[in-house]
UniProtKB/TrEMBL annotation:
The protein, known as: DUF1489 family protein
Species this chain originates from: Phyllobacterium trifolii
InterPro entries to which the protein is assigned, alphabetical: UCP032025
Pfam families assigned: DUF1489
Top-rank lineage group of the source organism: Bacteria
């Protein structure tokens, strides 16, 4: 069974903002002549790499709720210019909306088992992803989603 990660998507208020940021970064890499791959850099290196890469995903917490995920394709460690060990969580750029799952703020990332992960959108409540982002966020803030 795959193991997942969950992480706060800081500075992002909707899935659409995350998608726009990913598109921008991929386009930026293409223009620079670099491979068009999306990754998230983190300081802590996961210890359970094999389990994560066996079908695992990075679940994004946006505005206090897990709202979407991206499949993990690789985890690459490296040392930055200051000598600090870091890693790139290489992600499939496709965003998969999920059922919303409340999460309190935390630092870094956390492991998330498949049993505790929210279902992909459509496997439970249908239609939430089709609401405009502003309405979706307002309904969630009111506790109606």
């Amino acid at each position: 069974m795959a193991l997942n990660l969950v992480k706060l998507c800081v500075g992002c208020s909707a899935i659409e903002e995350l998608a726009a940021w990913i598109d921008f970064k991929l386009d930026e890499r293409r223009r620079a002549g670099l491979p068009a791959e999306q990754f998230h850099t983190t300081r802590m290196v996961p210890k359970r790499v094999e389990e994560l890469l066996d079908g695992g995903s990075l679940y994004w917490v946006i505005k206090g709720n897990v709202q979407c995920r991206q499949r993990l394709t690789d985890i690459r460690t490296f040392t930055d210019d200051e000598g600090t060990s870091r890693c790139h969580l290489v992600l499939d750029p496709r965003i998969i909306p999920t059922e919303w799952q409340p999460r309190r703020a935390f630092q870094g990332w956390r492991y998330l088992t498949s049993e505790d992960a929210p279902f992909d959108e459509g496997r439970g409540k249908i239609g939430r992803a089709k609401l405009p982002p502003e309405l979706r966020n307002e309904l969630a803030a009111l506790g109606l989603l």
